[in-house]
Design a protein that fits this description.
Elements: E1 4-11, E2 14-17, E3 32-35, E4 39-44, E5 50-52, H1 64-112, H2 127-138, E6 142-151, H3 152-158, E7 171-174, E8 179-193, E9 202-212, E10 217-222, E11 238-246, H4 253-270, H5 289-297, H6 306-325, H7 328-343, E12 347-349, H8 380-394, H9 396-412, H10 418-430, H11 434-450
Parallel strand pairs: 5-6, 6-11
Antiparallel strand pairs: 1-4, 2-3, 7-8, 8-9, 9-10, 10-12
Length: 470
Amino acid sequence: MSAPIRNCALVAFWLTLAVSSPARAQEPAGDEVVKMEAFNVTAYHGRMPLIDGFTGKDYTGENDVVFNFAQTFNKLLLGYHQKLVLDEVKHLQFRIKLGKEFEREMGQLTASFGFDAFTLDTSTWLRRERAIISRLIKEPFFKVKALIAWDLDRLNKMAPNRPDSKYAGDIHFDAGTGRWERRITDRWEVVFFNNPNNRGGTFSTEKTQGLNLDTQKGFHFIERGLPVQVPSHAFQEVKLTYPIFYSDQQAGEKELRYLQETFIANLYFIYDPFSWVARRDTRFRGGFSQECLDQIKAQRIYVSDREWFDTVFSRFLSDLVTLKLQGAEEIYALHMLNKRLGESPRTLGLGLDLLNWNKGERREAIDKPEAEARISPTTPGGFRFVLIDAYQRLGDPFVEKIRSRLLAQKAARRSINGQAMLKQTIAELAEISYEEFAQRAQTTQEAKLAQHRISRPVPPPPSDPIPGKN
């Protein structure tokens, strides 16, 4: 994030991916072992500029923590940059392998119902990720122009007032805790021409984000998502400054370690270019539900309530494959995570903080404290968990019973109500009324979902007094 030099870090690695080389990113994906170009990460080199937050000029103090942190800054950043790429590659490898296994298992399952072959269209897989990785290999997204050093002892003497400085917009005195806090806010832009021959065919979008560097709570707003064909050069460079607090009363190894550790922890949230696609904890999860729905819609199934049945049944088949490959915990955890993100989609980090610290900042967003583990069996989404509960209790005979009834209706060319058929099948095999079974299933499944409830995270207090109280 300081001045770059060329070709300082070379790491070659092999990927077993169902994609083609980044150099041929617009070609259809194929099953092959590919060698990515050399991991030619732009190195961070040279003296990191140190600015005194009060004066806006070069820092002229003598605090060892400030100087030592500045000296290790580039090394920390380069290490994080490399880890970001390698961790993403491992993540993609795992998800692609899982996708192939899902395609195979789903194909066998749908074939047993007499449906057409199930295949996944891999031609567009990972194109956005490949563009992002290609950019990371060549150069960073972020450039830190300077470290802004703030004398915490001096700030405490003037609290709650802020100094008259152009950098003061990124510090804030929290009256509730009696502590000074720091932030980063930035704006990511993506711009490219859809058609080089048509200057009017421009795609552009932006993401604004911010993070409280001491509580690790923040926000992010994405104007619109990225198209599949986004090239790596479309990502515009993001420039920012990074504020730090220091105290001449505490200038030891503990304070230095705190700055280093919180810097890396903050990078995890603010320097995640893959969040342009989706958060890593949601990407490629969910059992390809849309592809499964498209598959079922295309089949001749003799039920009268196709819209309801196709939605519920395709999800059930997807869940059967997920249960086999990953277990029920994957379904419960992802359901609760999606619920939490759906209720508070603007959250970045350990919670939502809109960071409206300055005049004119009026960001608004909904933030709910936790995802409730509630389902309603009368809705398609709730009926999903009734079917999961039925399979967990009744096993493969439950699936076989549904299969035989659908095949029988197909042979007779007579339609039945799909929802009524599923309820009747559950009641017959469970030997109780459907209503009683559904009530029991709701209680059981809500209890399992509750084990994965996503509550509002609370960051641990700092281990030293550097960001401390007045």
